[in-house]
Amino acid sequence: MTRIAILSQDPTLYSTRRLREAADELGHDVRVVDYLRCTIHVRAGKPQVSYQGDLLDDFDSIVARIGTKHTIYGTAVVRQFELMGTYVANSSQAILNARDKLRSLQILSSEGVGLPTTGYAHSTQDHSGLIRLVGGAPLVIKLVEGTQGIGVVLADTESAAKSVIEAFRGLDANILVQEFVKESAGQDLRCFVVDDKVVASMLRKATGTEFRANIHRGATAEVAHLTEEETRTAIQAAKVLGLKVAGVDMLRSSRGPLVIEVNASPGLEGIEKATGVDVAGAIIKSVAGKRLKKTPISVLAP
Fold first, then answer.
1. N or C end of the chain: which has fewer CB within 10 A?
2. Mean pLDDT score of the chain, rounded to an integer?
């Protein structure tokens, strides 16, 4: 039996409930902990975490479900458990790698993972150069901090692209400008990777005139049959970011699979319902019986 903590703000969420159910079914001692209510004890030679006044020093493994809005505090809690010698499915640094869209693309590109051509700039004074970089309109403009398709805009013309870029930068928002892969036709792949294996995959299809294939935006989903290259790409993407549990989103293109995002806290509802695969069980099995030796803080630093 492994003592497992699920770090989650809401125990009623589908993903949290399924992870807890899977742990119970497999005979493990599981507890859901709201990481925002954890207190970090920073003291020489004895890192600790407390929750509602009680020390959390008896967990073997952690499954972290860190929300986008609370990345900094959430990863600080995960890092503290790492220093205590607790095994974590996704390390604090891996979560940070994936959460920053630009950083993740930079890491993926350095390892030769296929990506859509992407531009990033602070100044709006050279719209034309940035737009030419990604092959012109139509193109996709993304908020670096966006999730679930929020903050993703398709600009059909150069003038529309310039207007959107100016609007986002006027709000001091960090944006990426990315080529529009026409042949993907409003579809993408979500590959769920656990311990360097694709355990489930689905093909998401946007509905109507929507180009974003996000379940939260009304997309439909069905079982995907991956090619060997797609499977390798999904596994490589998760691996180079340091993730043991990841949702890898890819587009099918004329030049092969292109990774558009890697999620460190992918939702379970869409993929379990579309594929019938017990993804929660695969995650729990991956952390069961594992322990982490105490890691020097210098190794954990960015």
1. C
2. 88
C-beta of residue 89 within 8 angstroms of C-beta of residue 245: yes
Q: Which pLDDT score is estimated for 298?
A: 44
Domains, the chain, ranges and CATH?
Answer: 3-90 (3.40.50.20), 97-114+183-285 (3.30.470.20), 118-180 (3.30.1490.20)
Sequence-distant (≥ 6) Cβ neighbours of residue 79 within 8 angstroms: 92, 300
| Contact criterion met (CB below 8 Å) for 262 and 238 | yes
Q: Which long-range contacts (CB under 8 A, 24 or more apart) does 121-129 make?
A: 121/177, 124/165, 124/166, 124/169, 127/158, 127/161, 127/162, 127/165, 127/166, 128/158
> What does pTM read for this prediction?
0.86
Average pLDDT over every residue of 69-89:
95
User: Which stretches within the chain are classed as H helix?
Assistant: 14-25, 71-83, 92-99, 101-110, 127-133, 158-170, 228-240, 269-275, 279-287, 297-300
Nearest to 178 by CA among 127, 123, 135, 234: 135
Rounded CA gap, 222 and 273, in Å? Answer: 9
- pLDDT tens for each residue of 203-254: 998 765 555 555 555 578 899 999 999 999 999 999 999 999 999 999 999 9
Compute the C-alpha angle 260/233/276, nearest 5°. 85
Query: From residue 53, how far is each of 64, 110, 272 by CA, in Å?
Result: 21, 44, 36
pLDDT at 124 over 80: no
Dihedral sign for Cα atoms in the order 301, 297, 41, 4: positive
For residue 301, give the amino acid letter. Answer: A
- At residue 218, the pLDDT reads 58
